[in-house]
């Protein structure tokens, strides 16, 4: 266990500048920039197909950007492998929940801390004391994360057997186990009912208070966006349309035309 | 009695071979159609060292497993980056290539006539001990961070990478470990049968191991072992039915796959029995 349990308030500064990515003839992300200061909660909104998820995939290294830079606490993440970026403290959840089938709830959370476990192959196959100690600590930690998101008592369940809302929470617990400095949430409230949404907002606030990490989230639900974000970025056709304080962005006529106006 | 002994011994050796297939296919979800080739490498290398250089058995056994692991490195480094379907092609090709090499380097290996006069160093107790030993190693591997990360990447590679898992490295480590174990099965076979021929290790053996793993339960080491025990001794037990036995074997496999698509055991492991009872005591 070499990474600190809590991100210090000075870490988790994510700066994304001039991000571009084309798939064939489609310019999915076209010079998009945003930044999140340590401990900030930042929302990214925009119409469907604006390139929000692609932007997340570029930050986390799923795709390599055609141009532009991603910098976390002064370290350039561009060009690094997906798993290297993750281990530097970039956690995420997925729009269409991607839990590990074949592992139970507890093991799902443990996998995210396993890359930090410091025992070697020999200790593993011989089940040496160092390995058992490390695994026991990881399991304890994982239980703590499950407790935080409200999944206590479901450790042995199959993730695919959980109700949808709980699967979202499990993804969150798994992302916590990575001990992220920045956590990226891709439409975390999609598919939740109104009471679950309120519960979710409280949960994110609680986790943010406890861990002090930076949060960047993509969301369509205005309730979530307005309640959580300190700062808002609006994306449209791969570009930054507007940014600023949530209330100011909400009143911006351009934004209303491109996005919010559609809903009315 | 000798007959039953030999069935048990060969079944034990098959079980060790199946452990390799289980790791590659069950844990990391890659299809290895050339797993038996690693058995050939282990068997031939150890036997030739013993015959030509009079290496004592334990050293020859270690050298055989190490050589299989080296062969695993050769195949593994380029293949772990590939998509699953390509991996089965590459391993299949590699397996058949090994058989060709063994067949065509007659001066070294005896070619198609086989390698003869290997000293007998392996008996039933050693095989049983080896089965238990290897099983413990593999079970511990599955139950460690390695096993967990393997199952995670088998289920969803992209999500696994996002959780910081170095997918390629884990696949390679697992592949190497599996090659070494399978190579050791080859060592046991060589010093038990006292005779090796390339044809014994062709792709049909690899395919049979895959069938065993699927019948037992793709995610269950327990299942793989039970299924290896049954399916590899079945053709012998059905010997009375002579020509019909292959058909009976196939029908049994088809029935199981049809009614239990996840295999007999699915992902159930026998270790859950004592894990559960331990938890019960705590509560």
Provide key terms for this protein:
heterodimer, A: about 260 residues, alpha/beta, 6-stranded mixed beta sheet, 4-stranded antiparallel beta sheet, 10 helices, about 40% helix, globular, B: about 280 residues, mainly alpha
Please give a quick description of this structure.
Chain A is an alpha/beta fold. Chain A has helices spanning 52-59, 82-87, 105-113, 121-125, 129-149, 164-177, 194-211, 222-228, 246-251, 253-263, and strands at 14-23, 26-36, 41-45, 67-72, 75-76, 90-92, 182-186, 214-218, 231-236, 239-244.
H and E string of chain A = EEEHEEHEHHHHEHEHEEHH
Q: What is the radius of gyration of chain A computed over CA atoms, rounded to a whole number of angstroms?
A: 19 Å
End-to-end CA span of chain A: 50 Å
| Structural shape of chain B | globular
Spatial strand sequence of the major β-sheet of chain A: 6-7-8-3-9-10
| Oligomeric description of these chains | heterodimer
Distance between the termini of chain B: 49 Å
Largest sheet of chain B: none
Residue stretches of chain A low in confidence (pLDDT < 50, at least 5 long) are: none
Taken in chain order, the helices and strands of chain B follow as HHHHHHHHHHHHH
Mean pLDDT of chain A, rounded to whole units?
A: 92
Would you count the extended β strands of chain B for me?
0
Largest sheet of chain A: 6 strands, mixed
Estimate the strand proportion of chain A. Answer: 15-25%
Structural overview:
The complex is a heterodimer of chains A (264) and B (283). With 264 residues, chain A is α/β, with parallel strands linked by helices. Chain A is 40% helix and 22% strand. In chain A, strands 6-7-8-3-9-10 form a six-stranded mixed β-sheet, with helices on both faces. A four-stranded antiparallel β-sheet of chain A has the order 2-1-4-5, covered by helices on one side. In chain A, β9 and β10 (239-244) form a beta hairpin. In chain A, α3 (105-113) packs parallel to α6 (164-177). The mean pLDDT of chain A is 92. Chain B has 283 residues and is an all-alpha fold. In chain B, α1 crosses α10. The longest helix of chain B is centred in the middle third of the chain and has 27 residues, at 167-193. Chain B starts with a helix and ends with a helix. Chain B has 13 helices and no strands. Chains A and B meet through α2, α3, α4 and α5 of A and α6, α7, α8 and α9 of B.
